[in-house]
Amino acid sequence: NTNTNTNDNRNGNAHTAPTHTVLYRSPPHTAVATTMATQDATAPSNDFMLSFQDGTMTRLIVIIVIVAAFQVVAANIPLSRESKRRIQHAMTGHILVQVSYILPYELCIAGLSLGACALAVFKFQFHDAYLQAVGPLLRPDELKAGKLPGAFWFLVGTTITALASPSMMVARYAVECLAFCDPMASFVGSSVRTPNIVKGSSVGGCLACFVTALVVGWWMLLQEDSMDDEGRIPGFTWQSVIIGALGCTVAEAFPIVLNDNLTIPIVTALCVAKLG
């Protein structure tokens, strides 16, 4: 052994053994320090992601509170019930579309789903408080304890539309059609005497819905700055807008499934996506 060590020293390998010895005998806190240093190096990015997520969740909560508060404010506007409903309907839909530009897609879906569930629980479990908060907005059939309000179907329809649409651009267009075309059809249909197509739907109301949908389509799909979330120009034409307006009008006039707040955005989006 002595000869071996002596030969190693003569061959210039004197530092080999000490080097390995130091690495092997390094105290445990060295590894801990190394790990902490690695964590410190990645801490800023982790903190950034956490703060981003926290900030996004905060925005979601604030938006839900604002939308809910708006329903109560709209219910107490000194106007007729139908006028209040039209204002609430149009503004709520438009607000939801604007929110989709602020929050990530996943949180939009979560917020809509949470809102629909909360509304149903509020209606069925706290019926008296529900009537006190938004009762002036409700039609007689919506006052019944077992009847879900139109606002519930509005949220469900918007959620399904966002999930089923090929792009958020189409989903936003369909929700804006729901927001503005339905109230316009109701206003014109009740203000101008025209023949009824079916109970609750008149020629004047359908024409108002169709024209409003054309305007919304021109605004949302045909403007030069219209593009999807990936920055691409989808290439919609007036044919797309007309088909979407026809789908919207048919869904508004013939709500064959549950409620037109459910069918209007879904049918409109599907018509543009599949036929337009």
Which properties best describe this structure?
276 residues; mainly alpha; two-stranded antiparallel ribbon; globular; disordered N terminus
Structure write-up:
With 276 residues, the chain is mainly α. The chain is 74% helix and 2% strand. The protein contains 11 helices and 2 strands, in the order ααααααααββααα. A two-stranded antiparallel ribbon has the order 1-2. A hairpin with a 2-residue loop joins strand 1 and strand 2 (201-202). Helix 4 runs antiparallel to helix 8 (168-191), helix 8 packs across helix 11 and helix 9 (203-221) packs antiparallel against helix 10. The model is unreliable at 1-45 and 47-52 (pLDDT under 50).
Shape: globular
The main β sheet shows up as: 2 strands, antiparallel
Cα distance spanning the termini: 88 Å
Number of strands: 2
Structural class: mainly alpha
Oligomer status: single chain
The strands making up the biggest β-sheet line up spatially as 1-2
Rg value: 30 Å
Helix fraction, binned, reads over 70%
Outline the fold blueprint.
Layout: H1 2-10, H2 16-24, H3 28-75, H4 81-99, H5 105-125, H6 127-134, H7 150-164, H8 168-191, E1 196-198, E2 201-202, H9 203-221, H10 238-253, H11 260-274
Antiparallel strand pairs: 1-2
Provide a concise account of the structure shown.
The chain has helices spanning 2-10, 16-24, 28-75, 81-99, 105-125, 127-134, 150-164, 168-191, 203-221, 238-253, 260-274; strands at 196-198, 201-202. With 276 residues, the protein is mostly helical.
